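On to our target:
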Amino acid sequence: MARATRSYGRAFWKRWTGYHVRSRIEAKMRCLKTFGERIAERDPDRQTAEIQIRIALMNRFSALGAAEIVRVG
């Protein structure tokens, strides 16, 4: 790892090992847990629905907070 980082740079190492993907997934899981640490439902179908609702809320909040980037010039 250290040799690859020195030779090719940290950005290349992260892409090569998939490190950035893991980091992004961990960040999304942390966001998902902000809606509650545990799943309230016991039935597997209802658990699936509960998680889908949480994800839909996360996506909505992300869409509301996303900045529009406009090129000036």
User: Anything to note?
Assistant: The chain has a mean pLDDT of 81. The radius of gyration is 18 Å.
